[in-house]
Amino acid sequence: MEITRATLGIAVGIAGTLFLGYCVYFDQQRRKDPLFKKKLRERRQKAQQNASRSRTLGGPLPDMSDHEAMQRFFLQQIQLGEELLAAGDLEAGVEHLGQAVTVCGQTQQLLSVLQQTMPAPIFHMLLKKLPEVSERLRASMKANSSSLHEDDVE
Is residue 50 part of a domain? Predict the structure, then answer.
């Protein structure tokens, strides 16, 4: 028995229609679920909190033992800090530069370069913010390492 193009086209059309019907049916079932909106709202809030947390920290913190990840994080913070300062967002720019200084292996050299290239008021703002930024990074790293230890136990 030979399958013609018309028969094949009809079969594909029917299969496509059945698939769409299947998708619509389960989408309606999902939307009818009384907990769907609650779960969706919770998921969106959690995603928004994660996004705002990563924005203030400049993205997820890298693994401290991975030199390449730390270097990428450092360069990303420098770039973000420069861009934000150029855009006029001094607080966020200083925050990112502070994170870069905190994770930098040669802190004194970086600070001297920044002192020479940045206006004095912004550099002083950076110096004032450094203890706060380094403490926040330390706390985040401790939280990340404790969650890793908990995951290892399970």
Answer: no
